[in-house]
Amino acid sequence: VAATLGLDVGGTKVLGIVLDDTGAVVAEHREPTERDADGLVDLLLSVAGTLRQQAPDVAALGVGLPGLVDRSGTLRFAPNLPGIVELPVGPRLSEALGLPVQADNDATCAAWAEHQLGAARGADTSLLVTLGTGIGGGLVVDGLLVRGANGFAGEIGHMVVDDGGIPCPCGRRGCWERYASGSALDRQARELVTGGGGARLVELAGGDPEQVTGVHVTAAAAEGDADAMGLLARFADWFALGLANLIHVIDPSRCVVGGGLVAAGDVVLAPIRVSLSEARLVAPEHRPRVEVVAATLGPRAGAIGAALLARAVQPG
Ligand SMILES: [Zn+2]
């Protein structure tokens, strides 16, 4: 296995890394995200070019993209990159760089990275759930990455958990990520404080209720603040509802939770474990407990996964 290059397009930055044959990151470079189609391809070429100067022997490139990426490497739809549709990212990068390119959904890449090198290592069937603006996800079943017929598998954030519920940027209502993502917790925290509760949250936000976010919720909950703990318990319940649906579908032994909120550790994960064990699963007393653990690769998971997936397309 030669070195491979991995790129991850996030909402605010493009992160590129070079992974050597042992799985170690040997080079890293990032630039702010470009939001127009040609600009995005040029930016990816620029990040790849910078990394190739540091590691000239890369044999293939993988790229993780925030949206629906089809099997030919075309980004069909990206909700957070308005105006970018039907963009053949994979083919254009491959032609310009003269390298084989594997393009996938960013969370699919991250799930593969956690499976190979991170918190899902050793779990043959696992899922990754990433809490950010939305909920990203990726599934590994029986040791194989699940891409689906078109490459669109794992859009777990848009499972509807509340028919007719809160509107979602995807154009539908009641999607799981409106209730159990990082931005959902931000919104729930602001609803609490505008309703007159959560005094400690307002304090932690410097006295301005408008500045309250999920970070203040986890910080206050860690101190034992009752309002914050109540908010996290309800959040955990929404989270466990979606997680139980996924557990019933793929039967994982481990669920890895990623995203900024997870830095708070068991303050977030413990209520999720409680909600999951309480009547969310069919016949809980007859099934092994599903582990719910924090992701270990952090914000580099997508780029590392892209580089790992590039190994499958490298020559020889
Ligand atoms: Zn949605």
What this model shows, in words?
This protein is an alpha/beta fold and 316 residues long. The protein has ten helices and 13 strands. The strands form three sheets. The protein has a five-stranded mixed sheet. A five-stranded mixed sheet has the order 11-10-9-12-13, sandwiched between helices. The mean pLDDT is 95.
Write the layout of secondary structure elements.
Blueprint (H helix, E strand, L loop, with lengths): L3 E6 L3 E7 L5 E8 L4 H18 L6 E5 L2 E2 L5 E3 L7 E3 L1 H9 L3 E5 H12 L8 E6 L3 E7 L2 E2 L31 H4 L1 H13 L4 H6 L9 H9 L3 H25 L3 E5 L7 H12 L13 E4 L6 H10 L6
Parallel strand pairs: 1-4, 4-8, 9-12, 12-13
Antiparallel strand pairs: 1-2, 2-3, 5-6, 6-7, 9-10, 10-11
Bound molecules: zinc ion (ZN).
Helical percent range?
25-40%
What are the bound molecules?
A: zinc ion
In terms of DSSP E residues, the strand content is 15-25%
Question: Order of strands across the widest beta sheet?
Answer: 3-2-1-4-8
The overall pLDDT, averaged over residues, is: 95
Q: What is the N-to-C succession of helices and strands?
A: EEEHEEEEHEHEEEHHHHHEHEH
Global structural class: alpha/beta
Q: What would you call the shape?
A: globular
Enumerate how many helices there are, as a single number: 10
- Our Rg estimate from Cα atoms comes to 20 Å
Main beta sheet strand tally, sense and closure: 5 strands, mixed
Number of DSSP strands?
13
- Low-confidence stretches are none
Distance between the termini: 9 Å
